[in-house]
Structures are given as C-alpha cells and as structure tokens.
Amino acid sequence: MEEALKKEVLNQFQEVYSYIKTILEEELSNLDKEKLEDGIKIVIEQQDLYEDWIDKIDSAPLPELERLEQVEHNDGVHVKLIYSLRSEEAKQVRKIKVRSNGKVDTFNYIFTWREIEGISVEIKIEYDTYGNLIFHIRKMEK
C-alpha cells in the first residue's frame, strides 16, 4: 500500500478510535473488577458513531494481510483472510470468510489492551447494525 494512503487510513482510524477510547475509559472507570475473571460484555447505544464506523472502519483499505487460511469443510473449501492496521494503542482487524457456496462474511473489530488493577485484559470493540458499540473485555492468559 502506498505510504500516503496508509497514513490517511491510519489517521482516520485514530480519529474514530480516540472517540471510542473516551467512551471506553469512562466504562472502565465504572467496571466491576470482580467480573474480569469471567469476561465482561458492555453494550452502549451509540447511534452517532454509525457513519464514522462505516466510512473509516468498515470501508477502510487495510495494509497488512496477516493470515490467509484454506479450511476443508464437508461442503468444500472455505477461505479466511485477516487484514489489519496497527497503531500504538490499538489494532484494527477485518476478517473475511468466503464459503464454498460463495457466501462472504465480513467482520470488523478494534482490539486494544489495558491493565486493570494488575490484571492484563484484551478489549475487542465492535459496532453492530443496531447502533450499539460493544466492548468484550477478557483476561489475557499468561
């Protein structure tokens, strides 16, 4: 990917992520730390993020092909592609699954990591079609 385009995509990602990060920090400050062992899912209605998520996350060309897998299924070969873009604080990931019947599923996530009271956690962020910003917080294995 051309450097100028990569920089533009990274800037757009950081713009959206900075907005999400503000929401995340607020939610983490109110978090019940006792529930971290089992994992926590936080869902927040966030309609005003919809256009930015579509324009700057779902539609962004991602520069790195992290993984390409071919998986044999009883109905034929399925292909999984994982593209990513990494910044200092977070990573944008797009998973594309192509089934043998031609059906294509695309998933977009943002991953970030924190330490909460000495516990390392991974936070997967996604946005659903109903306008909900979803944080999946899980303890990282050592």
Report, as a whole number of angstroms, the end-to-end distance. 35 Å
The spatial strand order of the largest sheet comes to: 1-7-6-5-4-3-2
Helical segment count? 2
Our Rg estimate from Cα atoms comes to 17 Å
Sketch the major β-sheet.
Answer: 7 strands, antiparallel
Q: In what range is the share of β-strand residues? A: over 45%
Which whole number gives the mean pLDDT?
A: 93
Based on Cα principal axes, name the global outline: globular
Look at the helices and sheets and give the structural class: alpha+beta
Write the H/E string, N to C. Answer: HEHEEEEEE
Catalogue the unreliable spans. none
Provide the descriptors you would attach to this structure in a database record.
seven-stranded antiparallel beta sheet; 46% strand; alpha+beta; 142 residues; single chain
Task: Give a summary of the structure in a few sentences.
This protein is α+β, with helices and mostly antiparallel strands and 142 residues long.
Description of the molecule:
With 142 residues, the protein is of the alpha+beta class. It has one domain. The protein has two helices and seven strands, in the order H-E-H-E-E-E-E-E-E. The protein has helices at residues 3-29, 50-58; strands at residues 40-45, 64-73, 76-86, 90-98, 104-116, 119-127, 132-139. A hairpin with a 5-residue loop joins strand 4 and strand 5. The longest helix is centred in the first third of the chain and has 27 residues, at 3-29. It is globular, with a radius of gyration of 17 Å.
